[in-house]
From TrEMBL:
PANTHER family: ELECTRON TRANSPORT PROTEIN, ELECTRON TRANSPORT PROTEIN YCCM-RELATED. One of its GO terms (cellular component) is plasma membrane. It comes from Shewanella cyperi. InterPro entries: 4Fe4S_Fe-S-bd, NosR_regulator. Residues 80-123, 159-198 form the 4Fe-4S ferredoxin-type domain. It comes from the Bacteria. SUPFAM superfamilies: 4Fe-4S ferredoxins. It holds the Pfam family Fer4_5. This is 4Fe-4S binding protein.
Length: 478
């Protein structure tokens, strides 16, 4: 039977008819037909991933004359940090969390092992919304102290640990789902947050009224109650819920970039994401600033002198490899002083950044909403919605910062430093304008009167510029 908009059963939600616009029936049919092959893709990516992680451990040291074309260790490093990370990050704009559903070997391994697992009830501490934030902060900080961007052993250790944890959690908890991906993956929440900006949406043909709901025995591996689905963040695009001819499956539609964030009011805005946004961005920022700011060296020096003056000489000793970088062969050996200073500096930057963001958004929200008759709950609801406007500028900052190697690749193919700088500035400029647009649109949906909207927008603009200024030295140099 051919499915057209005419034979989709009308539903109770009046918002649904416009949601049928942009439906990609061809994509639904393609994945419905070939979905059984996704397992083969997972299998292949799994082995490629393992090769990138572990083969470099068995190779000779990289020499100064080696390049990505002559030494697999360099190729693996560039593949992870110059291609995989920035492209996965960028792909959420164009294809949502397709990496998660179609390619990621860690999530796939977790789901596969679950078939043979213990199927234990998911404990409350795992279901806690703050769990992926903790997971992200631990991995980001550990990545810095063990040198995950430079050393093959550190890449194998960090990503191998994430893979192992995904498999263990998959074996222990849940039934026919991905507890790891929904609740614990350090990458998943970040991809989920930014997928809200993306142009792909999975939407129920027969949606139910009410907010998004969690449903452990759902067909969906990330436990989305499909009839209530309105937000993108937990959808890993596995296409399991898509049946082009059925009357109650989900459709796939293309939408304008940022559409979900503009209308975040009806797409389950929530505190957990906002906290992740503030804290996670701050932590990633700290992970860069310690490398480039002289302030870090000054603090390290002062702290070291204080310990020496108090006869605490252990501070100069090196710690275990699983906590800090210990690579004498590459002339990089961190001691406890390095470890404590990096962790302390990252934590301080995170707290300062998150506090500043909290206060700036509070100022913007107060200008737009205080004294308008809203009760406390409504005010904080508006606060949370307005926080989403900063996503584009934060995302591009993270992309240029964390994915800096992709720009080095552009240098390898002949683009000069001025050209690379121009590309970064253009990306930055676009993200800034996009954030300003989102701020304006969110306030429009909130029905903020013009007299409040303009000053609220000015503070929103200053907040976006604040984010840009924080990342400036990390991305463009001091
Ligand atoms: S949530 Fe994490 S483990 Fe799961 S598929 Fe996405 S990146 Fe992979
Ligand atoms: S909503 Fe559908 S496509 Fe998205 S994760 Fe759930 S089952 Fe997969």
């Amino acid at each position: 039977m051919h499915v057209s908009e005419d034979n989709v059963i009308p539903c109770r939600n009046v918002d649904v008819v416009p949601q049928q616009q942009g439906r990609m029936l061809w994509l639904e049919r393609f994945f419905f037909k070939y979905r059984s092959y996704i397992g083969l893709v997972h299998f292949a990516v799994f082995w490629v991933f393992l090769a990138l992680l572990f083969v470099p451990l068995f190779l000779d040291e990289v020499s100064e004359t080696d390049t990505v074309f002559t030494h697999f260790t360099l190729l693996a490093n560039y593949t992870m940090w110059g291609l995989w990370f920035p492209l996965v990050f960028l792909s959420v704009i164009f294809t949502g969390r397709s990496w998660c559903g179609l390619l990621c070997p860690m999530g796939a391994a977790s789901e596969y092992i679950n078939k043979f697992g213990l199927h234990l009830k998911i404990p409350a501490f795992i279901r806690w919304e703050g769990m992926p934030i903790i997971s992200f902060l631990i991995i980001t900080t550990l990545g810095q102290t063990v040198g995950v961007r430079d050393h093959p052993e550190a890449i194998a250790y960090v990503f191998g640990s994430v893979m192992l944890a995904a498999i263990i959690i998959g074996y222990l908890y849940g039934r026919n789902n991905r507890v790891w991906c929904r609740h614990m993956c350090p990458i998943g929440l970040m991809l989920g947050l930014f997928s809200r900006l993306g142009v792909v949406q999975f939407f129920p043909k027969r949606p139910s009224h009410g907010a998004d709901q969690y449903h452990e025995s759902s067909l969906c591996p990330t436990m989305i109650d499909l009839r209530h689905k309105k937000e993108s963040r937990h959808c890993i695009e596995c296409f399991k819920c898509v049946h082009p001819e059925a009357k109650s499956s989900l459709i796939v539609r293309a939408r304008a970039p940022g559409e979900e964030v503009e209308n975040i009011h009806s797409h389950n805005p929530n505190w957990a994401e906002v906290w992740f946004f503030f804290l996670g961005t701050g932590s990633a920022l700290g992970g860069f600033l310690w490398l480039v700011l002289p302030l870090y060296q000054d603090l390290r020096q002062a702290l070291g002198e204080w310990f020496i003056e108090h006869d605490q000489f252990w501070i100069g000793e090196s710690g275990p490899w699983w906590l800090m970088s210990v690579h004498p062969e590459r002339r990089e050996v961190y001691n406890w002083l390095d470890f404590m200073t990096i962790v302390g500096f990252m934590t301080a930057v995170m707290l300062v950044f998150a506090t500043a963001m909290f206060l700036l958004n509070l100022l913007s929200s107060s200008i737009a909403h205080a004294g308008t008759g809203k009760d406390r709950r409504q005010f904080w609801g508006s606060y949370v919605e307005l926080a989403y406007q900063y996503m584009p500028v934060a995302m591009v900052s993270l992309l240029i910062g964390l994915g800096g190697k992709i720009f080095e690749l552009l240098g390898l193919v002949g683009l000069g430093s001025n050209g690379i700088l121009t590309i970064k500035l253009v990306l930055f400029g676009i993200s800034l304008l996009w954030s300003l647009w989102l701020g304006w649109r969110i306030q429009t949906v909130q029905a903020v009167p013009l007299g409040r909207k303009v000053p609220g927008q000015i503070v929103g603009t200053l907040t976006s510029l604040f984010i840009a200024a924080c990342w400036w030295p990390a991305i463009f140099g001091i």
